[in-house]
Specification:
about 140 residues; alpha+beta; Herpes Virus-1; globular; disordered C terminus
């Protein structure tokens, strides 16, 4: 079953594949440098990111069609689906797929919507107060 906030590729992951070594397997062959590392969740190969000169992880996706990578950086637990362009981070660290949450979830979206609605409601009043007091600071005294 596909989680409602995830693509089918991320939902299909049962166990996250971890990097076998902290190195880009292709850069090591050519003596190149890398910036960050990503691990393919289809085959487990660890390759360099798009900030690296060779961009081996993206090239691997284009060559193989393997859609999901995970950061191989220490302390990072996010995944990215190239096909659906979905970034998801693992906030709880428990078993998949329910520990994954999209970057903006339903609660965050509802809170943001509420803040925007309140601001839109108060904006006309803020303009009236600004006009009434001509921008001067009016202290509010609590009794």
């Amino acid at each position: 079953m596909v989680h409602p906030k995830l693509c089918e590729h991320i939902s299909a992951i049962n166990d996250l594949k971890k990097a076998r070594a902290y190195e880009c397997e292709e850069c090591v062959k050519t003596g190149s440098k890398w910036v960050h590392l990503r691990t393919c969740q289809s085959c487990g190969v660890t390759l360099c990111c798009d900030s690296s000169p060779n961009k081996h992880a993206s090239a691997h996706f284009h060559e193989t069609g393997h859609p999901v990578i995970q950061s191989a950086e220490p302390g990072e637990t996010w995944v990215w689906c190239y096909l659906d362009e979905i970034y998801v981070r693992n906030l709880q660290g428990s078993s998949l797929p329910f520990s994954f949450y999209p970057e903006i979830g339903e609660q965050s979206q509802a809170l943001l919507s509420t803040k925007i609605t309140i601001f839109q409601y108060l904006l006309p009043y803020m303009n009236i107060f600004s006009y009434m007091f001509q921008g001067r600071y009016i202290p509010i005294i609590k009794i």
